[in-house]
Amino acid sequence: MIGRKESCDSGQILMTDLSCLALEEWTVVEFLKKYLFPVIITSLTISAILVFFVVPLTIVFFIYFSSILLLLYQRNSEVKADPLSDVWDSARKTIARFWDIYARVWHGYELHGVENLSEGPGILVYYHGAIPIDYLYFLSRLFLWKKRLCLSVADHFVFRLPG
What we know:
- It is a single chain.
- This protein is an all-alpha fold and 163 residues long.
- The chain has one domain.
- Helix content is 57%, strand content 0%.
- It has helices at 18-77, 89-107, 133-146.
- Residues 1-6 and 13-17 have low confidence and may be disordered.
Protein backbone atom coordinates (compact mmCIF):
# COMPACT_ATOMS: atom_id res chain seq x y z
CA MET A 1 0.00 0.00 0.00
CA ILE A 2 1.26 3.42 -0.81
CA GLY A 3 1.87 5.78 2.03
CA ARG A 4 0.88 9.40 1.97
CA LYS A 5 4.42 10.58 1.23
CA GLU A 6 5.01 8.22 -1.70
CA SER A 7 4.18 9.33 -5.22
CA CYS A 8 2.23 7.42 -7.82
CA ASP A 9 5.39 7.12 -9.95
CA SER A 10 7.05 4.49 -7.76
CA GLY A 11 7.24 1.99 -10.63
CA GLN A 12 5.05 -0.67 -9.05
CA ILE A 13 1.41 -0.61 -10.02
CA LEU A 14 -0.75 -2.50 -7.62
CA MET A 15 -4.51 -2.78 -7.46
CA THR A 16 -4.57 -0.13 -4.77
CA ASP A 17 -2.78 2.29 -7.08
CA LEU A 18 -5.92 2.88 -9.12
CA SER A 19 -6.57 5.84 -6.89
CA CYS A 20 -3.45 7.46 -8.39
CA LEU A 21 -4.85 7.11 -11.91
CA ALA A 22 -8.15 8.59 -10.85
CA LEU A 23 -6.30 11.47 -9.19
CA GLU A 24 -4.39 12.21 -12.40
CA GLU A 25 -7.58 12.13 -14.44
CA TRP A 26 -9.22 14.45 -11.92
CA THR A 27 -6.42 16.99 -12.26
CA VAL A 28 -6.88 16.95 -16.05
CA VAL A 29 -10.58 17.62 -15.62
CA GLU A 30 -9.81 20.47 -13.26
CA PHE A 31 -7.33 21.85 -15.80
CA LEU A 32 -10.00 21.65 -18.51
CA LYS A 33 -12.56 23.35 -16.30
CA LYS A 34 -10.16 26.09 -15.37
CA TYR A 35 -8.58 26.89 -18.74
CA LEU A 36 -10.29 25.18 -21.67
CA PHE A 37 -13.96 25.77 -20.90
CA PRO A 38 -13.63 29.60 -20.86
CA VAL A 39 -11.93 29.37 -24.26
CA ILE A 40 -14.79 27.25 -25.59
CA ILE A 41 -17.41 29.61 -24.17
CA THR A 42 -15.60 32.62 -25.65
CA SER A 43 -15.31 31.03 -29.08
CA LEU A 44 -18.99 30.07 -29.07
CA THR A 45 -19.95 33.61 -28.10
CA ILE A 46 -17.84 35.09 -30.88
CA SER A 47 -19.32 32.60 -33.37
CA ALA A 48 -22.84 33.59 -32.33
CA ILE A 49 -22.00 37.28 -32.74
CA LEU A 50 -20.61 36.61 -36.21
CA VAL A 51 -23.63 34.63 -37.32
CA PHE A 52 -26.28 36.93 -35.89
CA PHE A 53 -24.73 40.34 -36.53
CA VAL A 54 -21.85 40.32 -39.01
CA VAL A 55 -23.48 38.22 -41.74
CA PRO A 56 -26.67 40.32 -41.95
CA LEU A 57 -24.63 43.52 -41.77
CA THR A 58 -22.48 42.23 -44.64
CA ILE A 59 -25.59 41.66 -46.74
CA VAL A 60 -26.92 45.14 -45.95
CA PHE A 61 -23.50 46.61 -46.79
CA PHE A 62 -23.50 44.83 -50.18
CA ILE A 63 -27.03 46.07 -50.94
CA TYR A 64 -26.00 49.67 -50.28
CA PHE A 65 -22.74 49.12 -52.16
CA SER A 66 -24.73 47.94 -55.21
CA SER A 67 -26.97 51.00 -55.00
CA ILE A 68 -23.97 53.33 -54.79
CA LEU A 69 -22.35 51.63 -57.81
CA LEU A 70 -25.52 52.11 -59.86
CA LEU A 71 -25.73 55.75 -58.78
CA LEU A 72 -22.09 56.32 -59.78
CA TYR A 73 -22.75 54.65 -63.13
CA GLN A 74 -25.69 56.95 -63.73
CA ARG A 75 -23.75 60.09 -62.78
CA ASN A 76 -20.53 59.22 -64.65
CA SER A 77 -22.25 58.02 -67.80
CA GLU A 78 -24.82 60.78 -67.58
CA VAL A 79 -27.58 58.27 -68.23
CA LYS A 80 -30.95 59.99 -68.41
CA ALA A 81 -32.81 56.94 -69.70
CA ASP A 82 -35.53 55.04 -67.94
CA PRO A 83 -34.14 52.41 -65.51
CA LEU A 84 -35.97 49.71 -67.48
CA SER A 85 -34.30 50.60 -70.79
CA ASP A 86 -31.45 48.67 -72.41
CA VAL A 87 -28.95 51.42 -71.58
CA TRP A 88 -28.66 49.97 -68.09
CA ASP A 89 -27.91 46.40 -69.26
CA SER A 90 -24.14 46.56 -68.66
CA ALA A 91 -24.62 47.88 -65.14
CA ARG A 92 -27.39 45.36 -64.49
CA LYS A 93 -25.19 42.52 -65.71
CA THR A 94 -22.31 43.61 -63.46
CA ILE A 95 -24.48 43.83 -60.36
CA ALA A 96 -26.28 40.58 -61.24
CA ARG A 97 -22.97 38.72 -61.60
CA PHE A 98 -21.77 40.10 -58.28
CA TRP A 99 -24.91 38.91 -56.48
CA ASP A 100 -24.91 35.59 -58.31
CA ILE A 101 -21.33 34.86 -57.23
CA TYR A 102 -22.12 35.97 -53.69
CA ALA A 103 -25.21 33.73 -53.59
CA ARG A 104 -23.35 30.67 -54.85
CA VAL A 105 -20.28 31.10 -52.66
CA TRP A 106 -21.86 32.25 -49.41
CA HIS A 107 -25.25 30.52 -49.48
CA GLY A 108 -24.83 27.74 -52.06
CA TYR A 109 -27.83 29.12 -53.93
CA GLU A 110 -29.15 27.12 -56.88
CA LEU A 111 -32.03 27.83 -59.23
CA HIS A 112 -33.92 25.05 -61.01
CA GLY A 113 -36.72 25.16 -63.57
CA VAL A 114 -35.97 28.51 -65.23
CA GLU A 115 -36.33 26.80 -68.61
CA ASN A 116 -40.03 26.27 -67.81
CA LEU A 117 -40.76 30.03 -67.71
CA SER A 118 -42.78 31.31 -70.67
CA GLU A 119 -41.23 33.81 -73.08
CA GLY A 120 -44.08 36.28 -72.82
CA PRO A 121 -45.36 38.21 -69.83
CA GLY A 122 -46.38 36.32 -66.74
CA ILE A 123 -46.73 36.42 -63.00
CA LEU A 124 -44.23 34.74 -60.73
CA VAL A 125 -45.25 34.03 -57.19
CA TYR A 126 -42.08 33.66 -55.22
CA TYR A 127 -41.68 32.31 -51.73
CA HIS A 128 -38.57 33.93 -50.30
CA GLY A 129 -37.94 31.35 -47.60
CA ALA A 130 -36.06 32.24 -44.47
CA ILE A 131 -34.61 35.53 -45.67
CA PRO A 132 -35.85 37.97 -48.34
CA ILE A 133 -32.36 38.25 -49.82
CA ASP A 134 -33.18 35.03 -51.71
CA TYR A 135 -35.38 37.12 -53.98
CA LEU A 136 -32.40 39.25 -54.95
CA TYR A 137 -30.47 36.07 -55.77
CA PHE A 138 -33.39 34.89 -57.88
CA LEU A 139 -33.57 38.18 -59.81
CA SER A 140 -29.85 38.10 -60.49
CA ARG A 141 -29.85 34.55 -61.79
CA LEU A 142 -32.98 35.15 -63.88
CA PHE A 143 -31.42 38.19 -65.53
CA LEU A 144 -28.18 36.35 -66.28
CA TRP A 145 -29.88 33.25 -67.71
CA LYS A 146 -32.91 34.67 -69.53
CA LYS A 147 -31.91 38.34 -69.99
CA ARG A 148 -35.30 39.26 -68.54
CA LEU A 149 -36.26 41.74 -65.90
CA CYS A 150 -38.71 40.83 -63.20
CA LEU A 151 -40.71 43.68 -61.74
CA SER A 152 -41.68 43.27 -58.13
CA VAL A 153 -44.63 44.17 -55.96
CA ALA A 154 -43.60 45.14 -52.46
CA ASP A 155 -45.17 46.53 -49.35
CA HIS A 156 -45.01 50.32 -48.92
CA PHE A 157 -42.72 49.78 -45.93
CA VAL A 158 -39.92 48.64 -48.27
CA PHE A 159 -39.85 52.04 -49.96
CA ARG A 160 -39.37 53.78 -46.64
CA LEU A 161 -36.02 52.08 -46.13
CA PRO A 162 -33.07 54.34 -46.90
CA GLY A 163 -31.30 53.64 -50.18
